[in-house]
Amino acid sequence: MLKVAATSKPVLVAGAIAGVIRTHSRAELHAIGAAAVNQAIKAIAISRGYVAPEGLDLVCIPSFIDLSLDGQERTGIRLLVSGANARRAVSSARSARDARVHARNSKAATPGPASEVGLHAVASR
């Protein structure tokens, strides 16, 4: 588990993420506060470049977590980062996108409640 602070250097955190991903295939980051979360997200983006030559892409799953800081309970962000085969990750992302587009197109073809019908009629003019 990596703790990321507002003062953390994203390049250094990225190196740590890449190292953990290579050895354990997943890394967990904790951050409290907007600035710390910002540094963590930048580090994940940078670390993608570090593991890409090995055919890996990164998948990030954010969630809330209760953490203890100086004896006080705080709500933080937990970022679970996993390594995935780059081709499979791109294929899965495309499949998910295609499913969303299909669902959106299906909804447009079959209007729902009256408010949606009104909006659909305005949008189609």
Structure in words:
The structure is a single chain. This protein has 125 residues and is an alpha+beta fold. The protein has one domain: Alba-like domain (Translation Initiation Factor IF3, 2-Layer Sandwich). Helix content is 54%, strand content 30%. It contains four helices and four strands; from the N terminus they run βαβαββαα. The chain has helices at 10-24, 34-51, 86-109, 114-123; strands at residues 2-4, 26-31, 56-69, 72-85. It has a four-stranded mixed sheet. Strand 1 (2-4), helix 1 and strand 2 (26-31) form a beta-alpha-beta unit. It is globular. The relative contact order is 0.14.
SSE topology:
Blueprint: E1 2-4, H1 10-24, E2 26-31, H2 34-51, E3 56-69, E4 72-85, H3 86-109, H4 114-123
Helix pairs in contact: 1-2
Query: What is the arithmetic mean of pLDDT?
Result: 83
CATH top level label: Alpha Beta
Q: Kindly report how far apart the N and C termini lie.
A: 54 Å
Instruction: Give, in spatial order, the strands making up the sheet with the most strands.
Output: 1-2-4-3
Element-by-element helix/strand order: EHEHEEHH
Structural class: alpha+beta
Per CATH, the architecture is 2-Layer Sandwich
User: What percent of the residues sit in helical stretches (DSSP H or I)?
Assistant: 40-55%
Number of domains: 1
Spans of at least 5 consecutive residues whose pLDDT stays below 50 are 114-125
| Cα radius of gyration in angstroms | 20 Å
Number of helices: 4
For this structure, the CATH topology is Translation Initiation Factor IF3
What is the makeup of the main sheet?
A: 4 strands, mixed
Secondary structure tally: strands: 4
Approximately what portion of the residues adopt beta-strand conformation? Answer: 25-35%
Anisotropy-based shape: globular
